Amino acid sequence: MVRRVAVIGAGVGGLASVKCCLDEGLEPTCFERSEDIGGVWRYTDSTDSGRVSVYRSVITNTSKEMSCFSDFPCPEDFPSYLPHGLVLEYLRMYARHFDLLRHISFKTTALSVKKRPDFATSGQWEVITETNGIQESHIFDAVMVCTGHYQEPYLPLASFPGIDTHFKGQYLHSRDYKDAEAFQGKRVLVVGIGNTGGDLSVELSRVAAKVFLSARSSTWVFSRVSNHGFPLDMVHTTRFNHFLEWLLPSALTKRIKFRRFNSWFNHANYGLASTKSSNFKIIVNEELPFCLLSGTIVLKPKVKEFTETSVVFEDGTTEENIDVVLFATGYTFSFSFLEESVRSLFDDNRSLYKCVFPPQLEKPTLAIIGLVQLTGSVMVGSEMQARWVTGIFAGWNKLPATSRMMADVLKKKPTVKRNPSERENLKMSFISYTDEIASCAGIKPSVLQLFLVDPRLALAIFFGPCTPYQYRLVGRGKWSGARDAILTQWQRTLKPLRNRVVDDSSDSSSGWLWICLLALPVALTAGFLLSK
């Protein structure tokens, strides 16, 4: 019987794990090597500590309603997209509300996590920690590793001939970037066009003499502001859209997607992406297209090599007098504190059962939380994982046999190993993954059943945004406020914008009623098909 649980890391995943342990009557102890909670969301000017944190200007790519914990909505006066300071404030509110801080040991580093000699029967772990130079050994029944993606910068210098032998300028990884002040008047090359590369290129374009952005793959650019000014993810991440993707032929779905991708601007004209692309990534950036249009950012292909002062690209073009190269090439994870026999069981999250459990372990008492790439909020995915895992630790949920878990892993594991800068292509569908984990945990809502007992709520769930409150309607951890949170999510979205009220007497309520009535048969059919 699992009782004592070690939680490593007090970021988003760690806080959710501590809370879920408490919900299940377990005894968590969280080890956090820094002096505070927040993980990467706790901004710091310094990079000396080795701790990864966000850059000063970062703003979330997912909206507050789609990113919050499932039983703790963001305050209604918070904007839809949050700067890092408000994310940290929200995490502090969450920790205070559920009294999590007393379970966290700060300035305590987990040095090693090893299986006990009797692990095959007990499933226990020995965790050695260090606080102020003093080491201590602990015995735990289970361990939840919550250190996330962003551990070690991925800097593939070998893929860029001349960068460390000929190039006389400066180069750095995006982990070491905090603001644009040091780049005033310089010619900068940014390598990598993920969300970070796009953000930093835009910010640098305001102060640098010129910014060049090197992209090796097709990239579709979205704005956070979607139809009628609503948040992008609240408009598009719906069960109705998910159902259509499942229902329609893949070729037609692809055509519809590309048409929507190009509805803002023609990406081929900007050299970003083509509808013929088979491998592509999606980033969120409102300003990048204008910077390309105004010439403050110049898009370039993959780098071929560096000389003393210039960079040569694969298309044969050269840009001279490059002062700084900024690598936005992602991160790797190592879990160096895990013993080698355990660490060797997985090389990425797809080697884990449901991206959480190493399936080869004799006892399922080690869980990796937050090591998942989703098309939506990782915060929601991490909490869902923690709820499922702690239910297993407490004996409410069960894992299948090792052979079945291994078969599931092999079926889903990509045939080609990707480097960290290409992991964007391996993102999993937000709704597919959260529904899958929710089904395992017994907390997935049935749209069809809801239509029979609460049609208004069912319509909001099926046609509206797939907000995390949906996973608090049924099962263990059911929250009495979930229904109201779902029905008022649009009000909380609009509340921060109501600082200047204008008269809009148009009444669209009757139109919305007709839309709902016409859509009811579609929703009922979808609920029936998806429940089979």
From TrEMBL:
It catalyses: trimethylamine + NADPH + O2 = trimethylamine N-oxide + NADP(+) + H2O; N,N-dimethylaniline + NADPH + O2 + H(+) = N,N-dimethylaniline N-oxide + NADP(+) + H2O; hypotaurine + NADH + O2 + H(+) = taurine + NAD(+) + H2O; hypotaurine + NADPH + O2 + H(+) = taurine + NADP(+) + H2O. It comes from the Eukaryota. GO terms for molecular function: flavin adenine dinucleotide binding; N,N-dimethylaniline monooxygenase activity; NADP binding; trimethylamine monooxygenase activity. It is found in: Endoplasmic reticulum membrane. SUPFAM superfamilies: FAD/NAD(P)-binding domain (SSF51905). GO terms for cellular component: endoplasmic reticulum membrane. Its cofactor is FAD. The keyword Endoplasmic reticulum applies. Keywords: Endoplasmic reticulum, FAD, Flavoprotein, Membrane, Monooxygenase, NADP, Oxidoreductase, Transmembrane, Transmembrane helix. Its EC number is 1.14.13.148, 1.14.13.8. The chain crosses the membrane at residues 511-530. Broad spectrum monooxygenase that catalyzes the oxygenation of a wide variety of nitrogen- and sulfur-containing compounds including xenobiotics. Catalyzes the S-oxygenation of hypotaurine to produce taurine, an organic osmolyte involved in cell volume regulation as well as a variety of cytoprotective and developmental processes. Belongs to the FMO family. This is Flavin-containing monooxygenase 1. The gene is Fmo4.
